[in-house]
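## tool: complex_structure
## caller: assistant
## args:
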Amino acid sequence: MINIVVKLDAENLSTPEKIGEMAKRLIEEKKFGRNVVAVVPTTDLLNGNVQQLTYSLSDTPSERELDVLNSMNAHLASSLLSIAIQKRGFRAVSLAGWQLGIQTTGKVNGNARIEEINGDVIIEHFKKGAIVVVAGGQGVDENNNITLLGNGGVDTTAVAIAASINASRVEIYTDRDGVYTADPEIVTKARKLKDITYDEMLELAYLGSKIVHPRAVELAKKFEMPIVVRSSTENVRGTLIKGEIEMEKNLIVRGVAYETDIIRFTVGYESFENSSLSNLFNTLAMHNVNVDIIVQAVIDEVKPTISFSIEKEGLAKAVKVLEDNKESLGFSFANFEVGLAKVSIVGSGMVSNPGVAARMFDRLRKENILVKMVSTSEIKVSVVVPQDDMVRAANALHDEFNLADELV
Amino acid sequence: MINIVVKLDAENLSTPEKIGEMAKRLIEEKKFGRNVVAVVPTTDLLNGNVQQLTYSLSDTPSERELDVLNSMNAHLASSLLSIAIQKRGFRAVSLAGWQLGIQTTGKVNGNARIEEINGDVIIEHFKKGAIVVVAGGQGVDENNNITLLGNGGVDTTAVAIAASINASRVEIYTDRDGVYTADPEIVTKARKLKDITYDEMLELAYLGSKIVHPRAVELAKKFEMPIVVRSSTENVRGTLIKGEIEMEKNLIVRGVAYETDIIRFTVGYESFENSSLSNLFNTLAMHNVNVDIIVQAVIDEVKPTISFSIEKEGLAKAVKVLEDNKESLGFSFANFEVGLAKVSIVGSGMVSNPGVAARMFDRLRKENILVKMVSTSEIKVSVVVPQDDMVRAANALHDEFNLADELV
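## result:
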């Protein structure tokens, strides 16, 4: 009997009716002869009520108690889903993070990290024939305080559990039916991929694809755990994320990603001696400003500038950090530009195919799209362009690299 | 620094405002230089919503998942109360049963029993200056399943914690301001007791007083842990429950208790040989009919009868059990009488004062109150009387034993 881990979508647990439908779907998997673990995210069920109670008591509740309160929601949903499964004549059991022995660190940048997980607990429930329903995204630290895994924590829980019980795969149920060559909402010819490598998926994830969190993809890569991204409502084939893809001979670019609301900061110095990349970016990091692309331009020998991009949310903070630290950072001017977007192409074939970036820039020039910043890695090229040109850029690149072709 | 454990009342945690008031009161205790543990019961906060969600999924949710869902409410309340304390500038930390290492049995008659508790967790939080807020009435079994302690579980949690941290006392916050010689609502001259022994309190508790659950009193007696019953809203002296009471020379009866809606069954046999107490009461127990008073009357040598009393809730079940088992139990007729009540007098002085029961019967006879059944123990006498006479009986007995006098 094979073990599978299914990560559920919050939307599919938002009403008793939907919980009932999800119970049926998990029972179908069980009937196929599979041992099933379902990993449940935080849902909207009663979440608003808890938030309201909490903030009526204090504007600044402690992080420890917020974690306690937030952890209850997924636990509640896991118990309700178990009841819905039992109602249909199958065994089910809900488990909170602590019941699974999910040991974590304390908070690191607001998120706890999984250190250990005890798969035996699940195996024992499998032996009794139960579908195991786990509250995702939570664990306990060394002092038995409840901890939350933060962004991507539910995906990560699913992969970590799969590794601990030697599952044959993790299935991510989502409102998409797989991973696409580009966002179908903006690139009309976008096509669903049959498979994609961990590295490509990682780039796509970091570049704004919301389907699987990069933390989970990284963990899956480490344990060589296959991930299937599939629809939570329709029973259609999804996209397989795995280590290597056969038949990738002719494939250079595998997908186009985009991110809106990028802001470009430019900081200028009077002389090269005053400028210090490490000073600047350490100060920004200390104040939790997340910097993405960095470009150092030495316009002439005496007046260097440094440009970097951030997301919209960080704007006010970045401005304040630069103002507060103007003296110690030693720059002579700083400004920022809004109304930008990032468009990226991703593909592990790039490594052995020089000229991909050039082909990208060439196409964008033909489309009269101005490239404001560039960033490259082994398997992706990102450009920052005016946001008004973003959709046109994504479609053009999708076309340029023949992503609509069935071969890809 | 002394340690105290306070058991809170659900009513005082039913709104954010009341939670805030309770936080203030606990902070007052802390300011007095005491280490404080607050034990929180299940409240109405969101309880209705959870129940509604649960039963919209299944009419018969499994007991395991019901325990999971029900345990969340006290945990929620403990976290919210912690936040309200923090808001006022004091440290506080919420703990669920499992975080305290409250190890329990599995269910025995629907309730789990505490086997072990780890006081060190609380002591560590005391060292950091925190008020510890515990979700009462819950623990975990040997497989880390959440268990509920059932009726009286919150009181019992408070006493068990007090024993584990060597507390100087347990305070039970309630809507009464102490233990009374009788229910002030029916006995006009009822008076608050300064103190009462564990044994007397046990009898009162078993006889229907709802203030402290007998399970908790029994545990307190075992560990010689003083309990103070006091008002949750007013800062007035309550009643101390302890091992022995000084100055009890002249005290015979300490309180009057009552219970309404008692039903008396009478079962008649053709011959003494056919009648079997053990057969009858084993059969009733097997079907979970709780029998209270039992009277065996041998009216003449050949036609014995057995009478027993039960609470109203058990009527339908008792009738069915007798019908279903008429043949094997061998009785010739069975009937029942409704509209009865039980009135009891309690006092550890009775042991060494013969004639108390006689004095009770005498007074009831003078009041023209018919006694239908009698049951005695070392420190109490109970009589079953017509319910219409109950209030009169309670007042008469309160008067007969001078319970209104200050000396008592």
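## assistant note: The mean pLDDT of chain A is 90. The two ends of chain A are 34 Å apart (CA to CA). Handing back to user.
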